Amino acid sequence: MSKLKFAALALVMAGSLSMAQAQGHGPRGGMMMGGPGMMGGHAEHMLDAVDASDAQRAQIKQIMDAARADLKATHDSARALHAQSLTLFAAANIDAVSIEALRQQQQALHETISKRMSQAFIDAARVLTPEQRAKLAERMKKQQARMAERMKARGN
Question: Hey, what's the signal peptide range on this chain (predicted)?
Fold first, then answer.
């Protein structure tokens, strides 16, 4: 395989991976990327852990629902770009210029998603008290440490 074809293949695969991340966990999206899982069991469990009031839960749900609605069209576009990347990958001739243009579009969408989700998390954090945020941060640190241990045990 020529170096150009290998580089083009690597770009398509990297773009596909970045779009999978931008889309969240599977076609529905996940909590971090504005998909339907944004106020799923995990978020509810975290709010339970910090003793969030019903009013706080309602406000945070409203914030996340608004972010999800704002990002629906963006996620649809991301899926369309992902489909385009697969088409480019399967083409008889690898078009490096088209692949790069598509990668740039994918990055722009990912940036849009990232900015909107950051704003949603800022808004949600403002609903919680400083003590609740500290408790949540400590819990998340412990969770990350457990995840790192599991990854290490699996050899990743």
Answer: 1-22
Q: Please state whether the predicted TM-score (pTM) of the whole model is above 0.85.
A: no
pLDDT of residue 40: 56
3-state helix/strand/coil string of the chain: CCHHHHHHHHHHHHHHHHHHHHCCCCCCCCHHHCCHHHHCHHHHHHHHHCCCCHHHHHHHHHHHHHHHHHHHHHHHHHHHHHHHHHHHHHCCCCCHHHHHHHHHHHHHHHHHHHHHHHHHHHHHHHHCCHHHHHHHHHHHHHHHHHHHHHHHHHCC
Check residue 44 and give its pLDDT: 85
SS3 74: helix
The pLDDT value recorded for residue 41 is: 64
Residue type (1 letter), 139: R
Band (128; pLDDT cuts 50, 70, 90) = very high
Which amino acid is it at 60?
I
Contacts of residue 110, Cβ cutoff 8 Å, sequence gap at least 6: 18, 19, 21, 22, 78
Q: How far apart are CA 55 and CA 70, in angstroms?
A: 23
Backbone φ and ψ for 50, nearest 5 degrees, come out as -105, 15
